[in-house]
Amino acid sequence: MRASLRRPAALLVALVTVLPLSACGLFGSDADPQDAANQFVAAFAGGDTATASGQTDAPDSARALMDKVRGALKPSTVMAQVTRVDASENNTKATYKLTWDLGRGRLWTYDSAFELRRQDDVWKVHWEPTVLHPKLAVQQTIAVQDAEAQPAPVLDRDGEPVLQPERVVSVLFEPEKAGDANAIAGELAKALSGIDASITTQSILDGAAKAPGQPYQVVALRDGDYQKVRSLIYELQGVRFTASSRLLAVDRKLAPTLLPNLRKVVEEQVQGKAGWRVYTVDSAGAEGEELYAKAAEPAKAVQLALSKKAQNAAQAAIAGEATPSMVVAIQPSTGEVLAVAQNEAADKEGALALTGRYPPGSTFKIVTATEAVASGKATADTPLGCPGTTVIDGREIPNSGKFDKGVIPLRNAFAFSCNTTFAELALAMGPDDLTDMAKKLGLGVDFVVPGVTTITGSVPPAAGKTERAEDGFGQGKVVASPFGMAVVAASVASGSVPKPVLVRGVETKSDAVGDPVPSAALESVRGMMAEVVASGTATALKPYGDVRGKTGTAQFGDGTHSHGWFVGYRGDVAFAVLLTDVGQSGTAVQAAGRFLAALG
Questions:
Q1: φ and ψ at 92, to 5 degrees?
Q2: What three-state secondary structure class fits 130?
Q3: Angle at 185 between CA 184 and CA 189, to 5 degrees
Q4: Exposed, middle or buried, 207 (CB in 10 Å: 0-12/13-18/19+)?
Q5: N or C end: fewer C-beta atoms under 10 angstroms in the chain?
Q6: Please, which residues bridge with residue 564 across strands?
Q7: Are 384 and 410 contacting, i.e. CB atoms less than 8 angstroms apart?
Q8: Distance between CA atoms of residues 513 and 439, nearest Å
Q9: What are the CA-CA distances from residue 491 to residues 363, 443, 498 (Å)?
Q10: Contacts by 467-470, CB closer than 8 A, 24 or more apart
Q11: Is the pLDDT of residue 319 over 80?
Q12: SS (H, E, C) 265-302
């Protein structure tokens, strides 16, 4: 019969095979060796080393070793079961199975045995270290050691390392052990400021003061940086060091706003499964025989959708801009995000490429043109007026510089970016028409992309005539992020709204995008976007292949300042370029050219 001896919750659990006990007591003259073996095993496994050792013929030695072993292994649970008792008149051998649960999935199971000897009609366990493990010798105990798995690298879409494990050394300052804390902080600052300019004597002292009595982490250094300053800081009083392996960017300048967030998504995937080993240790602490070992299991590399080539091309295209500037590139066929680039000015303000909300200006004419064609209000060849100005409900709406093209086909009005034409088109639409069409192209869709926060934009319904007219050319209440406009370009290129992906195998969720846009309407808009490069406002991109897109000059604030946009695609790369406060779209077109040239 199998039974369990349970101690209070703070103690451990033993599963043992127990036979009925006589009424004369556990180890009295009527107790048999089976009972004695079961009760000893139950007491030991349950953590009651006082009772277990008292059932041996050497209680002091037995308890000392039991406590040492349990203290070294720190089990969460111990399970034990007597499997066999071979009885004789005075000497009996018991065999049992012991399983140590050391936590975190670490189970160690083995068989051991012990003798029971009858002394004055009482069965006692004959104590030897082998009772706890058959290979444990006198003057030995047991130790356990973890073997951490080396984290796997994180690769870009082409297999190039983007994040990889690297040894990191933390520099810890303990002012109460430093003697002259001010002087030591000064020496640390002098050595480390070349690596991190924000580290000063005062910053170290202030940081340490916030958690008195606790080590203050001054900095975590990549091993290469640590080696540069090791000789200057290693012997400083009150300074100590810890080392660990962390997943770090191969290139510190590559997507510095994006990669730290992606690292949080993939950290668990790349950790692998730690190994561990159990071994004997002698009285001097020297390692003896290995009793058990489980090798660490490395994880498989994780692959991002990101392209280092596209990311570097995007970053280089805007690096020289003085104002916050951004590029987002998406593969229309898959939704994989190829690049999320920002210059230093943008990085200081956060993840603007993914969450910034800006008036899209004339790039929004992609949405207005798609709605006009899909609803039958116009075709690419429908002649429409493009006067220099038009007045709607008392509001004068001008073209840029008030250029006047007379009556021209819609495709030309799109290519020349006639605000007046698109204001009139929007005026003929319902309050929700542009809202609905924008969502069909991904603008206003809420994507849940693991690891990052994204905002595509917002196109609220416009009941008033003036607001609706302004929305038609992206100057009403419409706002969009570079990410959102890249999604729009990808939707036009592919024919449906793609779900943006940053980490392959990690699902992106989104709300409903509405019915798909008729393919004939999208094909018409693609032709208009080609006209922009062939003969319109982006002819500077003609040398870079079959580029299709739309420029945008988006006024903001008091109307005296403008952002510059270019949104479009080439082949299976859709992208949005935004240069803030540059006054016109030509600068964005030039940045788009640099990006496409670097992509090749």
A1: -135, 145
A2: helix
A3: 120
A4: middle
A5: N
A6: 553, 579
A7: yes
A8: 6
A9: 14, 10, 6
A10: 468/426, 468/427, 468/429, 468/431, 468/434, 469/392, 469/393, 469/395, 469/397, 469/423, 469/424, 469/426, 469/427, 470/395, 470/397, 470/423
A11: yes
A12: HHHHHHCCECEEEEEEEECCCCEEEEEEEECCECCCCE
Residue 16: pLDDT above 50? no
Hey, what are 367's tokens?
């949405």
**Dihedral, CA of residue 159, residue 163, residue 164 and residue 165, to nearest 10:** -160
Q: How far apart are CA 586 and CA 553, in angstroms?
A: 9
Q: Which residues contact 7 (CB under 8 A, 6 or more apart)?
A: 13, 46, 47, 48
**Amino acid occupying residue 365:** K
pLDDT tens, 412-444?
999 999 999 999 999 999 999 999 999 999 999
Number of H helices, E strands in the chain: 18, 27
Tokens of 48: 């009651």
Report residue 98 as tokens: 């012991």
> CA angle, 329 as apex, 324 and 334 as ends, to 5°?
155
Can you say whether the dihedral through the CA atoms of 398, 399, 404, 405 is positive or negative? Answer: negative
Structure tokens of 524? 């018409």
Nearest to 178 by CA among 190, 186, 166, 170: 186
CA distances from 251 to 5, 166, 256, 345 (A): 58, 12, 9, 19
